[in-house]
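Notes on consecutive records. When two proteins share a document, each keeps its own sequence and its own token line. Never mix them. Below: protein one.
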Amino acid sequence: MTTINRRDLGKLSLGGIAAAGIGTATGSQAIPGVASATDNTPHSAHVTGIANRPADLPAAKGHRVVVVGGGWSGMTIAKYLKVNDPELDVVLIERRAVFISHPISGAWLAGLMPMEPLMRSYLDAAAANNYIFFNASLIDLDRAQRKVYTDQGWLAYDDLVLAPGLDYDYGTFGVDDPTAVNDLKTRYPAGFMSASEHISLNAKVRNFKGGTFVLTAPPGIFRCSATPYERACLIASVFKREKIAGKVVLIDPREEPAVKAEGFLAAFDELHSDTIEYMSSTEIESIDPETRTIVIGFDDIVFDDAAIYPRIRGARLLEYLGLVDPASAQKEAAIDRFAYNATPGGVMDEHVYLAGDCRPMPFSKSGNTAYTEGKYLAALIAARAKGSTVAWESPQTICYSIVGIEPMAGIMVRTKYKYDATADNWDYEDNFAVHERDREKADKAFEWAETHLDDMFS
């Protein structure tokens, strides 16, 4: 059973995700001294002060792999590097002190679970898996010298994995003014990046007094493809349970949900027809956070509260480091599609890898995708450190979505990918969905999250 329209499959080709005229700025036009993705010269760091002294870390004991980014991708890679080769010296750099999971957070939003299971300790993960957790922020990179610079000092690497995630691109909603962008981020957060966004969104739903609550699904490939539709169902369920006279308006540029379309549309119609208004094939032209007005061309939507999810793009850090793919409409990383090595200007850096949601391949930006992809990349890096290699493995996307809470009901999808060298695009190797909702699949969502979180952190 298909879960993404075949017309959308064109987006799974490299050409399908390219945007004419979109590239990365040259160093002279953006930040002085910064190489662009079309420049073969390795980026050189320009740092002073505390960042220019060695970090207070133990000396490397063997081949050191530095992993930057402690999301689902980085956490999986850090652990499985040690699983594949316990002799590797692994350092995980992450600016947050506490991990909070985006996957399964919708259940907390709907009051189906407490927040505590979503929160994990980076220190516990490092102790359990025998790597170093370095609570710091990456500020620069010197690929020629193989050094990363952080706000707590620099450290050298033999191999480096960057998993910086994504940023929002409000300009695609016609919102470029910094004040308006800040208002949207602060007053109507999307809830797909930070813990603060999740906490704010939870409070919005809990304190909503009635009226129109707007959700938006962004164009392109986004984190996570099922979540805007699942959230619509969960928020609608909360409104019914709490007897709130509210309506959920979900604005989507697609003709139907990005994944599990049949299951979500059935839930909208059969469970939430009195609460959810699904506005498909609807492009947002502009948003005014002051008047709480969304312009969609043929009409204006005035809302009482909202979670505005703009198009996503690769983390802006990639541009500063000169690692953006100029063919990517979403400013994602320039990498080898199978080995994940950075390829700025078409030249491979054998010691720098990029993974997770900043990748340009059109895989789902989901927790299970990042987890399975991370296990493959960890195995590859560990093998290469010993002069060997491993065969490419497709990441696997598995997603259980809760679409009703009284009674509990869920749907699911499972997907793997393959590359067609002749057509130069990606297709599905395995694409299976169960659109008939039931309690078992809702329970599976919790089981899946617990199993994977426990694995990464223990």
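Protein two starts on the next line and is unrelated to protein one.
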Amino acid sequence: MEPMIASSRQNLPDHQRIVITGIGLTAPNGNDWKDFRDSLLNGTSGVSDYEIRYVGETLAGVCDFEVNRYQSRKDARRGTRAGSVGIYSANEAVQHSGLEWENTDKSRVGIYLGVTEHGNVETENEIYELKGFDYDTQFWSHHHNPRTVANNPAGEVALNMGITGPHYTIGAACAAGNAGLIQGSQMLRLDECDIALAGGVSESIHTFGIFASFKSQGALASHDDPAKASRPFDMDRNGIVVAEGGCIYVLERLEDAKRRGANIYGELIGYAMNTDATDFVLPNPERQAECMRLALERAGLAAEQIDIVSTHATGTASGDVQECVALRNVFGGSESTYVNNAKSFIGHTMGAAGALELAGNIAAFEDGVCHPTINVDDLDPECELPGLVLNQPREIGKPKHVLNNSFGMLGINSVVIIERI
């Protein structure tokens, strides 16, 4: 089918087309792209029992990657969990890309990592330790400032990998993983770098504050079986499972990827960000729909040309319904578009969510399977969509386009569209 909408990308030269050539990640149910994908197809959850200071017993998506594969013990102690997640994911991405890293000009590499929040873990820990010294600040760690500055996760990656190009984090709440990809692609198009390490990271499970806040809000999930706690779209959903994780992509211009004979896993052909401007927490489906439409317009696609929609749905009573309203607004009753959710497997990885969830779906370009949303035993009628894939994977041929939704507090919305080329 030919595009039905005039595209801003038509006739773009190869040096303005941005492609994915490497994927590195750690998720609660997998520490590389293949294992993560296998878990999504096999129904393997990464949610487990978890206990954290003051909150006590709860549930979380916990990663179990090899911290010291790319980082010394000393640097790991000096740094942060988010930094370690970023270092692991970035090194895995570069290895996966086949770049000759030793011969790469590090001044032409940029790092753009989305985060929901950063510094809460370190501040909570320092105050807790200081309590044992009657709050005498001479015992406050001299590592605190570099641990808590907003650019920390990206900065730790830069230090670890010897990257001297631009690095920064993008604070975009739970839309941040997509925002990292968007920023990386823009910087490549502006010729600010030749390689972008872009995506998102999260250390959220290590701060008791996020659990306590969701609990007081009535939005923290609970279930006797941890694997069934995260259940977007289900009538019995009762909140968010907090998770940690990271996913970083190697982005390059198409001409550079072709020149070195790189494997190309997809092209970023459309994206959009906008703001609800209506509430601190509650989403606005009208603005979410507008964000999806803008991304489609920029990609030059009609809604029915999207094969897979990766939803943001977190398992909250209102949030899931609002996104489904937005999806019906954009996609109508289209049965050619399949809809799924990865949070049902791993929980909500916050700043990493958009990037991780996208990785789980662009693998369908190769294997032709749409992974399901699990734990949907009783579908909420208000969440019913024609193409919703529930509990079992579905073979869908060779998908061409994936649309990835990622939304966050303060009404920030982000959408990314990837094309198989």
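For the record: The first strand starts at residue 18 and ends at 26.
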